Amino acid sequence: MNYLTLNSGKRMPQLGFGVYQINDARECEDAVLTAIHAGYRLIDTAAAYQNEEAVGRAIKRSGVAREVLFITTKVWVQDMGYTQTLEAIDRSLERLGLDYLDLYLIHQPYSDIFGSWRAMEEKYESQILRSIGVSNFSPDRLTDLTVFSHVTPAVNQVEINPFYQQDANVAFMQQNGIQPQSWASFAEGRNDLFRTPSLLHIGEKYGKSVAQVVLRWLIQRNVVVIPKSVNPARMAQNIDVFDFELNASEVGLIEALDTGTSCFHSHTDPERIKNIAGIRFDI
Predict the structure, then answer these.
(1) Which terminal residue of the chain has fewer beta carbons within 10 Å of its beta carbon, N or C?
(2) What is the pTM of this model?
(3) What count of other Cβ atoms lies within 10 Å of the Cβ of residue 263?
(4) CATH fold label, 3-276
C-alpha cells in the first residue's frame, strides 16, 4: 500500500474503500469487513450515506487495530454551522463507535462553511479530528476558505475520472499542499467506461482490468482513490494495482479521453444548490 503524508502530518493510504450507495446495513457491514480483511485500511463514509453504524460494526468485528485504520466521514448541509457541526461530529463518532476520526470533511461547498470549519478546527486542535478537509470545492472556494481560516484543508474530495480529469484543479491542490481525492473514479460506468478500447488495450498489456488501469492512472497522479464494490473478487482486484506502472504513451491515451465536463452535475449550478438545500437525512 502507498501512503501519502497530509499537511496535518498524518499518513493517509492512497487507496481505500468507499461505501456510497451501499444502503443495506448488513450488506455494508459485510462489505467493509471483507474490504478490511482484503487489506484496505482507508474506509470512506459520510453521515448522508446513512451507513456509519454498519461501518462501525465492521471495524469492531474486523479485529484490526484502530491505529492502523484511516476512517473518513463527512458533515451534510443540514448540519452546517458551528454548533450544528460540533453536534454532527459527536453523532458520527457515536454511530461509528470511535473516539476519533482520521479525516472529517465538509461534504458540499454550501451554507455556513466558515461556521462548520471553526467547529472542525476546534476538534482538530483537540485531536478528536486528526485531519480536516472538504469535498466538491473548486479552487476559488478552497482559496476563500484557506485565506480566511487558521487551518488549510488537508484533503479535497472531488470527481476525478478519465472523462473528467480536472487537471487544473488537481494541480492547484497539489501546489497548495491540499491532497486531491477522487470520487466516482470509474464515472459509475458512464460513457461505457469499462468497454473503452484504449483502456481495454492497456489492460490487456498488463493483464489488468479497466478498473485497475484507471486506479493505477490516478495513483500515478498522486490522487487518493476510494473504489466501491460489494463483490469480494472485485475488491481484491481493485487493491491489486501496485505491481505495474503506466508509461507516458499509455498515460497520454487516457488523457485523450478527457471531456472537461462532469459525468454527473455542476456544483455551481444554482438549481442544484437549491435542490441540495432541501435534501435532509435522519442523521
Answers:
(1) N
(2) 0.96
(3) 18
(4) TIM Barrel (3.20.20)
